[in-house]
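RECORD TYPE: inverse folding
INPUT: structure tokens
STRUCTURE:
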């Protein structure tokens, strides 16, 4: 509030100068106010951009205040909110196992803020572990291959010389050897990588491979095999597709062996769509215990098996530009093989 007595004491020139000064001050106030608004808008925009950047990052991000309370976090951090309680602020970099996953935690401290980043490296660790397991498996397969081959030759020679009474024992040895040879072949193929040579092949040839595998596989229950293939030709690699069919056949037989019933049935059938040849395999055995590890290498819930069958089968079918679908209503799978021309 301006004093009236002071104004009355001023002459006209002083009043004019005072008025001009006041106008300038008011004008500058508006300028400062507009600059403040502009700076505030810029700050809000910058803060919004920073939040968007943090939100777009694939890893969990926390920004802590000086008292270590959460100043800012993205949605990934909110998904694993409890993880913050297990993070050691004093370690700049370390691995943390949380909710069956492995995270790489990085911590950066400034004067007032602490930035924590947690990156999910579960798949990377899994790949490293599988690579190590694959190397060991490949080495063992190579070491076992030669003596198993020699035993197989000797057992074939022995089968011709033993008495009729002892022949069943030698046949059981041969079936066991067949299983070991199949595991060796699967392991080497999986570790080296699947290579296929597609050509026109008859479904009858694939049926013969399935029936021959069934004859050579050991089981104790009354199991029947039914293969309903049409007189058709498909485009694929016979060797690797035979391995796929064997893997599904053996899984089915093993599932029936684990069932309480003393008999069971395995069936293979064929149908086609516009772009795919489809082979369906079903069995009457026990249900699949864990669908999440079906195609995980070296993982199995069976009492038999080495955990490579379905993982290798999936790689082979992918090489045929196809897919494997788990049936929902019945116990079984549909195997899609992309059609082609020779």
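DESIGNED SEQUENCE:
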């Amino acid at each position: 509030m301006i004093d009236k007595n002071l104004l009355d004491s001023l002459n006209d020139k002083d009043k004019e100068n005072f008025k001009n000064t006041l106008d300038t001050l008011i004008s500058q106030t508006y300028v400062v106010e507009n600059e403040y608004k502009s700076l505030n808008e810029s700050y809000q925009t910058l803060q919004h951009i920073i939040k968007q950047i943090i939100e777009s990052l694939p890893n969990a991000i926390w920004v802590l205040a000086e008292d270590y309370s959460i100043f800012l976090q993205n949605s990934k951090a909110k998904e694993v909110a409890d993880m913050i309680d297990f993070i050691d602020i004093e370690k700049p970099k370390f691995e943390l196992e949380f909710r069956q996953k492995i995270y790489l935690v990085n911590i950066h401290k400034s004067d007032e803020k602490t930035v924590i980043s947690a990156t999910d490296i579960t798949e990377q660790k899994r790949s490293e572990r599988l690579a190590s397991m694959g190397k060991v498996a490949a080495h063992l397969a190579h070491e076992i291959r030669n003596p198993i081959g020699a035993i197989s030759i000797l057992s074939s020679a022995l089968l011709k010389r033993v008495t009729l009474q002892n022949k069943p024992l030698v046949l059981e040895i041969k079936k066991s050897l067949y299983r070991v040879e199949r595991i060796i072949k699967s392991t080497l193929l999986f570790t080296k990588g699947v290579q296929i040579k597609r050509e026109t092949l008859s479904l009858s040839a694939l049926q013969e491979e399935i029936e021959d595998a069934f004859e050579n596989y050991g089981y104790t229950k009354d199991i029947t095999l039914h293969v309903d293939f049409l007189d058709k030709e498909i485009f694929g690699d016979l060797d690797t597709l035979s391995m796929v069919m064997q893997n599904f056949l053996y899984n089915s037989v093993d599932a029936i062996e684990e069932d309480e019933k003393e008999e069971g049935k395995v069936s293979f059938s064929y149908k086609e769509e516009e772009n795919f040849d489809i082979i369906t395999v079903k069995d009457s055995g026990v249900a699949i215990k864990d669908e999440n590890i079906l195609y995980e290498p070296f993982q199995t819930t069976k009492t038999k098996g080495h955990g490579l069958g379905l993982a290798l089968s999936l790689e082979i079918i992918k090489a045929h530009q196809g897919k494997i679908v788990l049936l929902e209503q019945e116990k079984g799978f549909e195997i899609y093989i992309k059609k082609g021309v020779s």
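NOTES: The longest helix spans residues 12-56.
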